[in-house]
Amino acid sequence: MIPKPGKDEHGRPNTFWLNVGTAFPHEDGKGFNLMLQALPIFGEGKLVVREVETEEEDEPKPAKGKAK
User: Fold this and answer.
1) Which of 9, 28, 40, 45 has the most CB atoms less than 10 A away?
2) pLDDT at 65
3) DSSP per-residue letters across the chain
């Protein structure tokens, strides 16, 4: 939602909110899919926002379980 300053029916300052889309959280809790509906974007208007991973997180993790 985007705040838009304006005036009410009596001329007093007021803020109106414009719904520009919806956010859906990822199952792993590390990001969102943003579906934008009120911006001039051709096509689907979908953004994927993810948590930044450090280099340590990019390294392969040892396999779990018993070694054979």
Assistant:
1) 45
2) 58
3) -EEEEEE-TTS-EEEEEE--EEEEE-TTSSEEEEEE-SS--SS--EEEEEPPPPHHHHSPPPPPS---
Reported as a single tens digit per residue, the pLDDT across 4-41 is 788 888 989 998 887 888 999 999 999 999 888 877 66
In angstroms, how far apart are the furthest CA atoms of the chain? 78
Distance separating the N- and C-terminal Cα atoms of the chain: 55
**Sequence letter at residue 1:** M
Burial 34-66 (b: 16+ CB within 10 A, else e): eeeeeeeeeeeeeeeeeeeeeeeeeeeeeeeee
Find residue 15's DSSP bridge partners. Answer: 5
CA 32, CA 49: separation in Å to the nearest integer?
A: 5
